[in-house]
């Protein structure tokens, strides 16, 4: 295929978007200034570089046979990796992932061995079509553009590795999450059973394990029953990401497929590793499998281990309910994980129906005065003589820092260390009722590390299998620099930059949070003016792409809701 190359500059609207900016509700058009004064506009809903960023470099590849234009944008920032955009008719935009053939020339390809596999060869249309894509948003209006799409995950007709040439490795980084071992198992078994790959290494202890620790040989026998165990058999760590050292070791060991399982921090690290690999022109596939118990990774429907966490949280909530119910003025307080995103707390609350109040990082709350938490607790105790409160670990941090004047501390990976909201909340409630001379019985339960250390439940095991297989199929087909995950129920290959650019958050003006408020009857802690403003912004967007708008940044949400008295 002949590709004509031209270099262009993208002229973008450089005003910093605010959350109230109506432009966020429709795809921003970026104007591609092409040679010979030719201009073309393509929708680009999320590209919003700060005004200080260097000019975006844009390359255009035209494939005359298919009549397809492909644009790659390099954002000038190492984690804002190249964007690979393929615009189509009616506002269609494929955000594609890199492929070896983009930067390594004259690579041979081979027929996929699955075509002769007894289990798979009978499946009609087992291979995904090169043109299959998955839309990011499925609720659209009649006149709306087709919007952003991702490449559909799955086995491809052609592969770029012979089984005997594959030298794969797997690493797990960051915090634990139920299902890590299942993903490891299914990568090993998928490579072995589907593609006949025999060489798979486990990297011991996270990113630093590449250059400072030993490796373990992984075979289907070694990983046979690990999905029944919590944690990760490979160990994990924080910090220690050194892309040059890591890629040096990848090169020394002749590794050509790297499977990286981890959360937002890990995927940022994976993006940097991929860029270093591409810079060196290596035929090494880098595949990210997003892991986070908090469900804070954007674009994907949900992260593995999340359902397990919600299920396990029920046990703690039940215990809190039993304790509080058994005694007059009983209060059960349960802390759940959720550093910046309150999904576990929200879903555990909705599932339980015994919770009277759920507090999450996205919804600022206050204690004293009208509409405050103390007033609500008093009301519930009057009405019901007991109550259960669920609090996410990242909730109310601004109240704690006001009261403790602590300095900001970071963990080894650069995450802000949170103050422990559970004991603080417990103390504040006790203090309040002591002042009022009202006897209460508060039982505080912190099941956080117990929840994330358990093995995954059945549905998460199936999900982990699909993720692992999608990653294996993508790497074998020569794709690289991608993360896998379900988008509207279909597994897709997602460019790293989409996974790491922002966090998935509970949107407190969406229907799900409204369901929660109506199920608990708790105050919203918002004042009416700000609810009206938030609602105004919720009018159907000009593009009609209605769902999947979870990714507001925390600062903007709290600017929307400064409801502290
Ligand atoms: N911006 C970044 N660039 C490169 N590596 C990073 C970055 N952020 C985190 N990492 C690395 O990713 C790994 C896991 O990060 P961490 O934040 O602890 O967990 P998680 O991946 O679950 O969010 C650590 O080894 C850390 O050094
Ligand atoms: O105690 P650790 O290991 O630092 O982990 C605590 C953090 O890990 C989490 O469970 C999940 O975060 P990640 O998925 O980003 O690792 C958070 O809820 C929590 O704040
Ligand atoms: Mg993280």
From TrEMBL:
Mg(2+) binds at residue 264. It is found in: Cytoplasm. Keywords: Allosteric enzyme, ATP-binding, Cytoplasm, Glycolysis, Kinase, Magnesium, Metal-binding, Nucleotide-binding, Transferase. Its cofactor is Mg(2+). Its EC number is 2.7.1.11. The keyword rRNA processing does not apply. It comes from the Eukaryota. It catalyses: beta-D-fructose 6-phosphate + ATP = beta-D-fructose 1,6-bisphosphate + ADP + H(+). Substrate binds at residues 292-294, 337-339, 393, 449-452. It holds the Pfam family PFK. Residues 168-473 form the Phosphofructokinase domain. Pathway: Carbohydrate degradation; glycolysis; D-glyceraldehyde 3-phosphate and glycerone phosphate from D-glucose: step 3/4. This is ATP-dependent 6-phosphofructokinase. It comes from Hibiscus sabdariffa (roselle). The lineage of its organism: Eukaryota, Viridiplantae, Streptophyta, Embryophyta, Tracheophyta. The gene is PFK.
């Amino acid at each position: 295929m002949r590709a004509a190359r031209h270099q262009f500059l993208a002229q973008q609207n450089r005003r910093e978007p605010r959350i109230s900016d109506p432009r966020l509700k429709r795809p921003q058009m970026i104007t591609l200034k092409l040679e010979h004064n030719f201009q073309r506009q393509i929708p680009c809903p999320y590209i919003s570089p700060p005004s200080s960023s260097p000019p975006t470099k844009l390359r255009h590849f035209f494939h005359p046979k298919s009549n397809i234009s492909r644009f790659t944008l390099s954002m000038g920032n190492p984690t804002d990796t190249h964007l690979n955009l393929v615009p189509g008719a009616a506002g269609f935009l494929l955000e594609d992932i890199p492929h070896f053939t983009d930067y390594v020339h004259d690579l041979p390809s081979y027929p996929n061995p699955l075509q002769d596999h007894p289990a798979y060869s009978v499946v009609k249309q087992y291979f995904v079509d090169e043109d299959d894509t998955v839309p990011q948003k499925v609720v659209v209006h009649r006149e709306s553009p087709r919007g952003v799409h991702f490449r559909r995950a799955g086995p491809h007709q052609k592969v770029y590795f012979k089984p005997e040439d594959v030298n794969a490795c797997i690493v797990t980084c960051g915090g634990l999450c139920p299902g890590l071992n299942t993903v490891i198992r299914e990568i090993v078994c998928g490579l072995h059973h589907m593609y006949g790959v025999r060489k798979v290494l486990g990297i011991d202890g996270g990113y630093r394990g590449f250059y400072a620790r030993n490796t373990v040989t992984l075979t289907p026998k070694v990983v046979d029953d690990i999905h029944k165990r919590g944690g990760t058999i490979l160990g994990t760590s924080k910090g220690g990401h050194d892309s040059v050292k890591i890629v040096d070791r990848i090169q020394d060991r002749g590794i050509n497929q790297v499977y990286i399982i981890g959360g937002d921090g890990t995927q940022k690290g994976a993006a940097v590793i991929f860029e270093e690999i591409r810079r060196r022109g290596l035929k090494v596939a880098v595949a990210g499998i997003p892991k986070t118990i908090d469900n804070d990774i954007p674009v994907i429907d949900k992260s593995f281990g999340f359902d397990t966490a919600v299920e396990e949280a029920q046990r703690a909530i039940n215990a809190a309910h039993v304790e509080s119910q058994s005694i007059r003025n009983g209060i059960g307080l349960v802390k759940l994980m959720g550093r910046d995103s309150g999904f576990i707390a929200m879903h555990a609350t909705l599932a339980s129906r015994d919770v009277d109040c759920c507090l999450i990082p996205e919804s600022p709350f206050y204690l004293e005065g009208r509409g405050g938490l103390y007033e609500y607790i008093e009301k519930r105790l009057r009405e019901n003589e007991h109550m259960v409160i669920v609090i996410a670990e990242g909730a109310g941090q601004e109240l704690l820092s006001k009261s403790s004047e602590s300095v900001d501390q970071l963990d080894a990976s650069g995450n802000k260390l949170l103050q422990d909201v559970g004991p603080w909340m417990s103390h504040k409630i006790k203090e309040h009722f002591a002042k009022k001379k009202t006897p209460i019985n508060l039982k505080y339960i912190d099941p956080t590390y117990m929840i994330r250390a358990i093995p995954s439940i059945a549905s998460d095991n199936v999900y982990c299998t699909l993720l692992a297989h999608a990653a294996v199929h993508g790497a074998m087909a020569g794709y690289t620099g991608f993360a896998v995950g379900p988008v509207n129920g279909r597994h897709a290959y997602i460019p790293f930059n989409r996974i790491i650019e922002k966090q998935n958050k509970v949107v407190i003006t969406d229907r799900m949070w409204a369901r929660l408020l109506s199920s608990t009857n708790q105050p919203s802690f918002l004042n009416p003016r700000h609810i009206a403003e938030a609602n105004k912004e919720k009018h159907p967007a000009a593009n009609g792409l209605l769902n999947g708008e979870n990714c507001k940044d925390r600062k903007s949400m709290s600017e929307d809701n400064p409801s502290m008295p």
